[in-house]
Amino acid sequence: MGGRPRGVRTHRGDRVTDRLAYIDQATFLSMQANDYRSQLVQYVWVYTHPVDEERLRRFHRNVGFGFAGRLIEPSILPFGRHRWVTATGPAAPLDVEDARPPGELGTWLDERSQRRVDPVHGPGWHLGVLPMTDGTTAVTLVASHCLMDHGAAVSTMTDAIDDTPRDFGYGEPRARTRRAALASDLRQVARDLPELGRTVVTAAKYAYRSRKEISASRPPAALGGPDGPLVLPAVSAVVDLGDWDARASDLGGTGYSLLAGFAAVLGERMGRARPADGAVTLMIALSDRDGRDDRRGNAMQIASATVDPSSATTNLTAARAAVREALAALRDGHDDKHALLPITPFVPIRAVRRTADVIFGDLPVSCSNLGDVPPALSRIDGTEAEYMLFRPVDQGVTRAALERAGGQLVVAAGRNAGHVSVNVVGYEVGAENTREWLADKTVRTLSDFGLKGTLI
Question: Exposure of 122 by Cβ count < 10 A (0-12 exposed, 13-18 middle, 19+ buried)?
């Protein structure tokens, strides 16, 4: 789909590289299990100086390759492995909006986050530009998390900026006859059977160890009002990098543990602490991407850390130890929930959501430390954006599903161009749940740590 820019590199793999990795299949099945509620990646660049429009259009032409240049073709079998198919080039036109006042930036970002992306039928991503009446310009890229996580997005966008996009060489959509697809998918299932057998044994052991959590897990919450679609409140606070690191050091921690402490305190403020001990469970994403040739859309593992928010604002030692222990358990293989992934294609859709509740526990806070973002990533038009944001947003959310899950809190932070961008998406059952409400909680939590940020 779309033309191939001059100099594009084509990478032809072997016969099985078009099959989704188990983690990507699990991500897709999770979307289906939650009524096609989609996790997204949303990148935002804010320029207070004029943008180079031609370079921006070149970025738009280039970015639809690599991880963004594909879609998912579901297996013909209900328990089969899905496959990647090609969808290279611009997935949708570059959208340049009419100028708006700068105070409407947040509203525009929300609107863009809800413009449809579809990892099966396309578009899998889209790019929009907002000129503002004060001369500022915002650009945002929104993509399905089924196609790419942060590491994959960085790779794709860096290639686009460098004018060296990659074509992964996947087959055309619907190129196989039904008979050929059935035979191919059955052969893949046969190849997967030995690993499936080992996984069933692991799953049985995991279920036995987790039997208390399974029996005591959270019952569905009653809906407190009318159901309907909603946009989760989202805010970004940009903090000076020097201030962030200095405060982390003063509290006996690191930038990583400061983020964990912030997420725990904000989680407590939003009613996500455990009643028994007041602690907050953090789900921490850890990349395990294995170089440039790793084509998994989501190359990560999830560690679970328990952080006490009561002491985090004055001493990060405990939070630092909790994060270190959780990551060590993941690296050393003591946290084995990821060994269950090969069973994913055989899990009934209706059981996927319940399984996630058991594995990750009640009312967790998702905490993603994106680390140092490559400097080139802030120069999608060839000049450095004054601010870069990383919004962990969703689309297709309904009030009933969100309240059944007990709300949501996601915190993601990245370091770029002398700033730390702290991005928060949250919803608390029974609360006001507006952008202003979430901004107030974010500012107060930063203040608890002696920090100030520019809200965007």
Answer: middle
CATH class, range 9-166+177-191 = alpha beta
| Residue 257 in tokens | 């543990």
Please give the backbone phi and psi of residue 57, each rounded to the nearest 5 degrees, phi first.
Answer: -65, -35
Find the helix packing angle between 22-33 and 349-360, rounded to 10°.
Answer: 110
How many residues are recorded in the chain? 456
Fold of 228-455: Chloramphenicol Acetyltransferase (3.30.559)
Query: Using only C-alpha atoms, what is the Rg of the chain?
Result: 22
Integer Cα distance of 217 and 361 in angstroms: 7
Q: Collapsing DSSP states into helix, strand and coil, what is residue 445?
A: helix
* Helix intervals (H) in 313-387: 317-331, 349-360
Residues 64, 89: Cα–Cα separation, whole Å: 5
Q: Name the CA dihedral angle for 169, 173, 178, 183, rounded to a multiple of 10 degrees.
A: 20
Please tell me the predicted confidence (pLDDT) of residue 78.
82
CB 247 within 8 A of CB 258: yes
Residue 242 CB neighbours (<10 A): 11
Whether the CB-CB separation of 119 and 147 falls below 8 Å is answered with yes
Q: Is 426 helix (H, G, I), strand (E, B) or coil?
A: strand
Burial of 93 (0-12, 13-18, 19+ CB in 10 A): exposed
430-434 long-range contacts, CB within 8 A, separation 24+:
430/224, 431/270, 431/271, 433/233, 434/233
DSSP track, 368-393: EEEEE--GGGG-TTSS--SEEEEE--
Which among 435, 442, 444, 266 has a CA at the least distance from the CA of 367? 266
For residue 113 the two structure tokens come to 């986050």
Residue of 388, 386, 382, 384 whose CA lies nearest to 55 = 382
Q: Which helix (H) or strand (E) holds 113?
A: helix 105-114
Q: E-strand spans in 60-205? A: 70-73, 83-86, 95-96, 125-131, 137-144, 166-167
The answer to whether residues 112 and 140 touch, using CB atoms and an 8 Å cutoff, is yes
Please count the CA atoms within 13 angstroms of the CA of 206 that sit on its side-chain side. 19
Q: Which amino acid is at 124?
A: G
Q: Which residues of the chain have pLDDT under 50?
A: 1-4, 6-7, 9-16, 199-208, 210-220, 358-360
For the chain, the structural domain boundaries read: 9-166+177-191, 228-455
